[in-house]
Specification:
The chain has about 110 residues and is mostly helical. Helices cover about 85% and strands about 0% of the residues.
């Protein structure tokens, strides 16, 4: 019974992953980089694409969302030229701590 539910969840995530990556590819190849509003749309599509792919590969939606959050925050920090080793390590530490907290809370 558990495997049936697991494969059903995967089946629901596959179309979302495909649409997210197609949306991301469309933004990259169609819109010029300095168009107003494209940057925010790009970050949202990155979040959606990484979250769906992370949820599929890690077989856990929460971990996929944490991965997408980390990638999106690092992208924003990179755009604002604030990406340093210390900020990267701090972000990884916060995300790992959140995962450990939610993992212990669910048991």
């Amino acid at each position: 019974m558990a495997k049936v539910i697991h494969t059903r969840r995967k089946r629901r995530l596959i179309p979302l992953a495909i649409v997210s990556w197609l949306c991301l590819g469309t933004i990259i190849f169609v819109f010029p980089p300095h168009t107003t509003g494209v940057l925010m749309l790009f970050i949202i599509c990155i979040f959606s694409a990484v979250a769906s792919l992370g949820a599929l590969l890690l077989t856990n939606v929460r971990r996929g969302l944490l991965l997408a959050t980390g990638v999106s925050i690092m992208l924003v920090l990179r755009i604002m030229a604030l990406d340093t080793l210390s900020s990267t390590l701090l972000l990884i530490g916060v995300l790992v701590t959140a995962e450990v907290y939610w993992m212990q809370k669910s048991t």
